[in-house]
Amino acid sequence: MTIPNILGPKSGITRDPFPGSRKIYVKGNLHKINVAMREIDLEGDRLTVYDTSGPYTDPERTVDIHQGIDRLRSPWIRERNNNENNTQLALARKGIISPEMEYVAIRENQQLQLMRERFRSLARFHKGNSFGIPMPEGEITPEFVRQEIAGGRAMIPANKNHPESEPMIIGPKFLVKINANIGNSAVTSCLEEEVEKAVWACRWGADTIMDLSTGKRIHDTREAILRNSPVPVGTVPLYQALEKVKGKAEDLSWQVVKETILEQAEQGVDYMTVHAGLLIDHVPLTDNRLTGIVSRGGSVLAKWCKAHQEENFLYTHFEDLCDIAAQYDIGLSLGDGLRPGCQADANDQAQFAELAVLGELTQKAWSKDIQVIIEGPGHVPLHLIQENVALQRKHCFDAPFYTLGPITTDITPGYDHISSAIGAANIGWYGASMLCYVTPKEHLGLPSKKDVKDGVIAYKLAAHVADLAKGHPVAQLRDNLLSKARFEFRWKDQFNLSLDPETASEYYHENLPDRSDDKEKPYCSMCGPDFCSMKATSEMRSQKIKDSEEEAPC
Amino acid sequence: MTIPNILGPKSGITRDPFPGSRKIYVKGNLHKINVAMREIDLEGDRLTVYDTSGPYTDPERTVDIHQGIDRLRSPWIRERNNNENNTQLALARKGIISPEMEYVAIRENQQLQLMRERFRSLARFHKGNSFGIPMPEGEITPEFVRQEIAGGRAMIPANKNHPESEPMIIGPKFLVKINANIGNSAVTSCLEEEVEKAVWACRWGADTIMDLSTGKRIHDTREAILRNSPVPVGTVPLYQALEKVKGKAEDLSWQVVKETILEQAEQGVDYMTVHAGLLIDHVPLTDNRLTGIVSRGGSVLAKWCKAHQEENFLYTHFEDLCDIAAQYDIGLSLGDGLRPGCQADANDQAQFAELAVLGELTQKAWSKDIQVIIEGPGHVPLHLIQENVALQRKHCFDAPFYTLGPITTDITPGYDHISSAIGAANIGWYGASMLCYVTPKEHLGLPSKKDVKDGVIAYKLAAHVADLAKGHPVAQLRDNLLSKARFEFRWKDQFNLSLDPETASEYYHENLPDRSDDKEKPYCSMCGPDFCSMKATSEMRSQKIKDSEEEAPC
Asked: Please, which residues have CB within 8 angstroms of residue B491's CB and are 6 or more apart in sequence?
């Protein structure tokens, strides 16, 4: 695994730690593992939070993107390499807690007990509700993770050839995760930029990235991304396969796709989207749709089926596909090739017919010890979102749900990160486990670095809103700490606890440029000194204390 | 009513019509009225949409901000000036359909029948659900508007001294409306900027604006805004009253507030927020809150109550207040002085105790023919939002609900327009009638012109998402038309149908700078020419037609 000499000497990768934050490593009990987390300094205390940014934000680690980052999972993988059947699902079913399982258990906890102890006075949490999927009340144990994996209710995407990845888990009883799509197209973007975008997406909170490159040097781009990615990497192998047949869908075959899957598996792709549930009989169900088939993979396969008048080869070769996946421990993301592309087409017969087939494939994959997640829409009005989750659970036996938004109105090009964050927060609350981001450029163009950040932040926000609503036991602590800092005019703590400290600080200082006394100023430029309600409340409260002190003699 | 000579000669007001759009005026049947709407040109057709931008986007009308805009309601107001009891509520109860009622009926319709006729092939709509408040299926009639007003279920804010305002209606059976807060603070902003922001907010879709100025020249700022505002203007009179007593809450009195209300009423303020439901007994209920009282009005009144050990003078003088409101036909927005300021404080006893008092005040106001809306939170996690709407309906007899967001997580300073758009879309779906915007600067500083636009767009988006979900009979047509344009690669139509055509077009052209052939290019830079699913679907569909033509002989 060496990276082709393709990356320029200049790199725009940001390596600064977040302001007021440091990287910490929490040791495992069962395995020799060090779980990376972020500790935020507060006035007189500190909070541990989940951290996806990898070694880049640790000033004590050197990173050379031409070499790739440290391969933390190499010894774990080597150790079990001689066993047959060593996918995470196989191990879990055999009762084995892998280092990856312990890693994610510790990671999900975010030092729950310690944090609860430390901030006992702030433990005023609302009990959420999560539509029949109750959150664990206490600490997440490695054994709990093992059980969720064994039951197919969670996935740890971890190709044995991607040892650089810090293990993470996707499942409804864990923190809601987000994915960021990157990758070039034939029209724009270059390799360096895509690596930079990948690291940038992780910095702001992407839990996985998908490399959806369709342009030039797809193999090299993916290699550079994989070797430098601290999070699992997903792909849609069909895209590269289509490049191999020069964009002619009709010329695709299982053979070409199989070779592509093997090529990508060997590189270390952790999970792959396969549109194996789209059957030839489903295609006519889309005839009266307003926007037809909007999944790239779906439209290509539908075209192939029509041209050959044959069943989708990913469906007919699904077992072969599973055999490859098992060899590398690749997770399968069962694609929704017939997801709706507009409000009018939401929740239609085509969409749900394919979903039923995804359930059938889920069981096939499970029978070969392959982990599965199910992809979901797309474009859905707010009142039709819940039905998607209910049917997905019913058809797919509680396999995790991985949705694209959904976008809740079609009239917002340029702002689809917002209209889809609304759908994403809701579907996460209802039980979806991972949310694929949408950037402001959706439907308009390839996202820039700024768009990637805007998309990631909007989705980190939506995932957190869902975690609060579904009752994650530790999620609200950060909100409470930030609110307390706000009430006490600890501006620096307020900024540092927020999802984007730099932007918060910049906005605050726009009208109050003096940066010397962040801590002291008991107001902002919105209300000014005389109209700050929090200042007024504080004054009233101290008045009250004075009153009671005066009354004390009685 | 002349504007003090305070506005500089230069004005940054944008007067361009939206691209591909023109202003149309639809005539009334009962009254001599011309209802302003926007017509969007499409290839071979055109769509009518709701328009809040006023005369500024009509190139055929001259606007001089030193004179103020046309006073379209002057003759209507003059005509009924001799009658006693001539508020909209009094008229409605007497069975009279005012010109304002006919205006909003026509405006809400957006030429529903004509549009349905014109786009019959696109009439594939999802039936929404709106939690016990069914939307009217067909055209909104003036008589329907009258009934909703008479029943207190809707408000037309229309001070007889603000004849410049184009009538609009706030109620759960109508389009969800949005409000934009503007106004200076002691720290920043100037008068010209606030007028510019007001017109700017209306351009992007604000249905009302609230002038929350607390800095210098409050009276003059308001005068300039009122004379140039095509939408109703709201205020919180307490802010100016507090300025009059030099920021000392203890020095406030009913007399000072009354004089301020009269001053603002005379200028033409259409609706006023009064925190009359916060009682002295409620204050201790906030003692254990994480962020105390976060409403500016609420904190000031609580301080006053504590200092004087007396009941809130707005509560004790509520009938006097109603008498002033009746004289000018001012709508009362019953403020939630105890709304929660963070997730931890949501849905607590303090909040709901005040809400019950707002119900009592609603009936008092109605008994004096005053229209009422009820203000709501604030900061609420997603799973606790619905309870707010349910309790508001129960306590306040179906008076319209006007909420601030709610913000659904506290960890997003800099992005609160997004975290609150999530709450706003949900609460609008559940039945809230107007959503007060939150800008990216919330909690950090006074919004700039850019922030105002970002806030308005995020809320216009949220309101539209709610309209789709609650089943507004015409809302989805615009989505369907945009999606069809998208599928057919009519880029210009796609941009012009979107909430922000300029941004959509700019993003599209960022990587495809050639603007000569928007219509022709069957792809964007996201996927490039070979990977466009819509192109593939089209090709497959035309293949199909060819097939059936070939098969025709059989």
From this structure: B485, B505, B508, B518, B519, B521
Q: Under DSSP, is residue A308 helix (H, G, I), strand (E, B) or coil?
A: helix
Consecutive H or E run containing A304: helix A296-308
Give how far B345 is from chain A: nearest CA, Å. 9
CB A203 within 8 A of CB A14: yes
DSSP string for B217-279: -HHHHHHHHHHH-SS-EEE-HHHHHHHHTTT-GGG--HHHHHHHHHHHHHHT--EEEE-TT--
The answer to whether B536 contacts chain A (CB < 8 Å) is: yes
- For chain B, positions 234-253, list CB contacts with chain A under 8 A: 239, 242, 247, 249
Q: Is the dihedral of CA B404, B410, B413, B418 positive or negative?
A: negative
CB contact under 8 A, B531 and A442: no
Among partner residues B247, B426, B533, which is closest to A295 by beta-carbon distance?
A: B533
Q: Which chain B residue is nearest to residue A530, measuring alpha carbons?
A: B247
Nearest-CA distance from B185 to chain A in Å? 6
Choose among A381, A466, A534: nearest Cβ to B468: A381
Q: What is the pLDDT of residue A548?
A: 44
CB < 8 Å to B504, chain A: 413-414, 444
Minimal Cα–Cα distance from A356 to chain B, Å? 22
Q: Mind telling me how many Å the CA of A63 is from chain B's nearest CA?
A: 30
When pLDDT is cut at 50, 70 and 90, the band that residue A156 belongs to is very high
Residue linked to tokens 């005389």: A530
From the CB of residue B253, how many other CB atoms can be counted at a distance below 10 Å? 15
- The structure's pTM equals 0.96
Q: Is A409 on the interface with B (CB under 8 A)?
A: yes
Task: Give the Cα separation of B236 and B185 in Å (integer).
Answer: 14
Question: CA A213: distance to chain centroid?
Answer: 18
pLDDT band at A68 (very low <50, low <70, confident <90, very high): very high
Chain A residues touching B533 at Cβ < 8 A: 292-296, 298-300, 341
Torsion of CA B218, B224, B230, B231, to 10 degrees: 0
What pLDDT, on a 0 to 100 scale, did the predictor assign at position A519? 52
d(C-alpha A437, C-alpha A421), whole Å: 8
Q: Please list every residue in chain A whose beta carbon sits closer than 8 Å to the beta carbon of residue B480.
A: 290, 342-344, 410
* DSSP-derived secondary structure letter, A406: -
Q: How far is residue A448 CA from its own chain's centroid?
A: 19
Q: What is the mean pLDDT of residues A87-95?
A: 98
Return the residue of B nearest to A383 by Cα: B469
| CA of residue B393 relative to chain centroid, distance | 20
Closest Cα to residue A330, out of A226, A241, A405? A226
Residues 266-295 on A with a CB inside 8 Å of B are 283, 286-287, 290-295
Q: Which residues pair with A23 in a beta bridge?
A: A38
Give which of A124, A282, A483, A521 to mutate to test B binding, by max B Cβ within 10 Å: A483
| Percent of chain A whose pLDDT exceeds 70 | 94
Q: Per DSSP, which regions of B298-378 are E strands?
A: 331-334, 372-376
Return d(Cα B128, Cα A364) in angstroms, integer: 37
Alpha-helical segments (H) within B335-441: 349-367, 385-396, 416-430
The whole-angstrom separation of Cα B134 and Cα A17 is: 52
Answer whether A530 sits within 8 Å of B242, measured CB to CB: yes
Low-confidence ranges of chain B (pLDDT < 70): 1-11, 186-189, 515-520, 543-554
| Tokens 């069809």 belong to residue | B484
Q: Which residue of A has its CA nearest to B530?
A: A247
pLDDT, tens digit, for every residue of B343-391?
Answer: 999 999 999 999 999 999 999 999 999 999 999 999 999 999 999 999 9
